[in-house]
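>> Question from a student workshop board

For tomorrow's exercise we were told to take the sequence and the ligand below, predict the bound structure, and bring the output to class. My setup keeps failing. Could a helper post the expected result so I can at least see what it should look like? The ligand is protoporphyrin IX containing FE.
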Amino acid sequence: MLSVTFLVTGGICVVLACMVISLILRSRRDVHLPPGPTPLPILGNSLVLVPTDKLAVYKRLRAEFGDIVCLTFGTTKCVIFSGYDLIREVFVKKGDATTNRPPQSFFIKSIQKGYGVGGSSGNLWKEHRTFILNFLRKSFRRERLEGLIEHEVTHYIKRIHDANEKPMELRRIIGTSLTNVTLTLGMSKRFEHDDARLIQLLKAIDDIMLYSGFSEALCFFPALKYLPGDMFHAQSMLDDKEDIFKWLKELIDERPGGVPEHEDDIEDFIDAFMLEAKSQEGDTTYTEHQLLHVLFEFFVAGVETSGATIRWAVMFMLHNKDVQDKLADEIISNLGYERTPTMADHPHLNYCQAFISEVQRCGNVAPLSGPHSASKDFYVNDYLIPKGATLLMNLTSALKDPKYFDDPEAFRPERFLDSEGTYVVQNSLIPFSIGRRICLGKDLAKIELFLFITSMVQNFEFLPEDPNTLPEILGCDGISHGPVTFKFIAKRRRPVKM
Ligand code: HEM
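>> Workshop helper replied:
Here is what the output should look like for this input. Compare the format with yours to find the bug.
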């Protein structure tokens, strides 16, 4: 009897001791976590993100707590890193622990479902990222990509001419042109600007980009998606994704022919994907499901980001007439009015390169990059970053880092030129992110930005709608940070030839 009581008491003591030790360990662990605002019971730090101006929130958090800030949402820690050097340290040097995507994120779990390349991690991500990069490299080599963008630019410039120097807005026109670039590259298909099906696709992409800003809360409190009225737009995003997939499937079904026989027969991404699927016997990740997710990502990741940068370029030209004049001088003295810019002109147009870099720095279209996740515990500046934490890079802080960009709030393309006027690459300019997840479409985007922007300046002078009032330099608060809609006048530099 005595021994039973002894055993039970002993057992309880052991359990209590374990609980106390675990509490001590947990609190010691918490001591090593980076600083941040005190989390409230249940709500954690979710109220911190309530104001709509997220960029101001991250700036304030950095001012108060420093370059590494830890927030608590539900059971998840979210760590924000600021400043170019620290971002480099975490996402490049510690890349083996910081490259995965957070599986709990609403966008990754419910929209991307762990497929595609931006939404996947581990082997699926590695295999498909390498495959897509190879495909893009081969397209560059064949100069195919450049040719198809030049073709699209011609249609685009015509659309701006069609506005007849009346106040116009760019969002729809540039969105259509960039979607056509993606469609041609992906499936050898393009649409006219007023095609109803294309307008429907653009609307769905726009909505997803806008609503994704609201979905942050769903990452940490998934139950919120069941609130009445679709307050966090979860259902709308799922419906939009369904529409885009249906649209893509229809286009794939309409494609003539079957699987190409050889690499030389590859016309577009779908051809390359199908050929790879055929060459892999047995279990393959080259499925229709994966293909649809990759194509979906090309639209979501590629159209709005490049489009927003081009819209920022117009905004900064309106605000800096002297810069616009220098751009025009350089383009027209090198190419004249007739010859359309090509990538062969790129090395000669130093001021244009500097302008585009400065637009990317000040436009800051992906202020928090994409979310990453810690695949194991690791330490930065003696702080513990626990396995499973969501990791955000504050790209704004790097693009405006005074250590690398003197007077960082000023718009000054000259900061990218040496004393001879030659463009100088600056490694600290990281609008495409940094590390193993660096934007997969970076080289494609650079060609798009160069060809679209130089052709626009060659053809038009950009003026404000009202000569006495410039549009406010104000960004949207979605997944990407484009300028809020503004109107301008595109005045022809020479008479139109119809
Ligand atoms: C100016 C234009 C663009 C900017 C500023 C931009 C920026 C970014 C950023 C910041 C990321 C997140 C990287 C990370 O998670 O650390 C990203 C990822 C990605 N971007 Fe871009 N992007 C642009 C254009 C494009 C284009 C044209 C494509 C078309 C294919 C594209 C495809 C992707 C993909 C697929 C990913 C996911 C990569 C991965 O997770 O491995 N992007 N981009």
